[in-house]
Amino acid sequence: MAEGMMSGGRAVFRIRDYSLYCLSRFLWGIGHHVQSITIAWLIYELTHDPLQLGLIGLVAFGPAVPLALVAGPAADRYDRRSIIILCSVVMAATSLVMIWMIASGYISEARTWPLYISTAVFAAARAFAGPAGQAFVMSLVPKEQFTSAAAWNNTINQSATIIGPSIGGLLIPFGTLVPFYVAFVMLTASALLAMFIAARLLAGGKPPVTFEMLVAGYRFIWHTPVILGAITLDLVAVMFAGVTALLPIFARDIFDAGPWGLGVLRSASSVGSVLAALALANFTFQYHVGRTMIATVFIYGVATIIFGLAGNFWMGILCLIVMGAVDMISVVIRQTLILVESPDGMRGRVVAVHSVTSGSANHLGEFESGFAARLIGVIPTVVFGGVAAVGCSVAWVKIFPALWKREKFS
Fold first, then answer.
1. Model-level pTM greater than 0.85?
2. Which residues have CB under 8 Å from 144's CB, separation 6+?
3. 409 in a structural domain
4. Which of the residue ranges 223-237, 287-301, 312-326 would you say has the lowest mean pLDDT?
5. Helix axes 211-222, 225-241, angle to 10 degrees
6. Spatial CA neighbour of 242 closest among 389, 343, 119
7. How many CB atoms lie within 10 A of CB 223?
């Protein structure tokens, strides 16, 4: 890896289109998280069923796998900026539909299915926007600033993850229509800003649509043990150790903190993520990358166990901050390995595979958490997930020695 690749600081923001992209992505993230937290609160408020919360993750997972086969190739064949704009418009339209349904009284305790449909549409839009966005942002900066751009991009995303749920939690008491209006404005503004970014032509033109082209991303990852180990480590750990789906239960029933408390809990892990991302964007980090990534998953598991056993709102926030910080380090290492080693002509397909596995782990993890919480209780579910993450990190040292021994990004 070139000296200083991890220490780009704020120089990357001198690039106009990159700055526009980051602002657009920030507003997109706020709109997305405001709507998502409002839907989660509505479902639990109407059903009081943890399994219904878990079903949100399952519904969000549904479109991700089949669409990944076309979303990645689409990002490598068509204008990535146009894909981003279209996805933002679709999500904004979903917010408008939700406003109409709530205002008309269509959504009720006996009719919650529109909330799941909204979640599925959001998931479908994210399935296309994710690969297109991550591949597009790398075309906005020179190669030596890839990692700095990736770290700042994650900082922007996590900042939106902090602000979005907080805004949603503060607005819900004013009526559920209000956060949906805010989501619509944010998503529309995101699309408008993206229109001012200059389109980029794909290097090498459009690859032909063949079966080999569709599965090239999967084959590339399968034959690159370091990337395969990094992706599967995240998949297994997050699938079992994620607590996001259960946060409405912690906020309402365990911590007795209400919707504001839910917003704080949803934001806490992102506070840690932003702090870690800022450190990675401003300071050199280029040694022991494999061991560092595996260690972060170990720490994530331990923090999850403590969160489940804490029984205290502020201790829970501290655990979530730690979880967010170590998860961000893992994310930046994983994304940097993918971006550095993937050719530009197939970067969209490789990112699509990464997006679907990462997204699948989160969504299936949410379903697993809700299902397990109904069977064995909320606290045992969280503790078991933390133990699974710890065990996974130890096992991956033996299963993927190439990842453990990886010293530098290249």
1. no
2. 2, 4, 5, 8
3. no
4. 223-237
5. 80
6. 389
7. 9
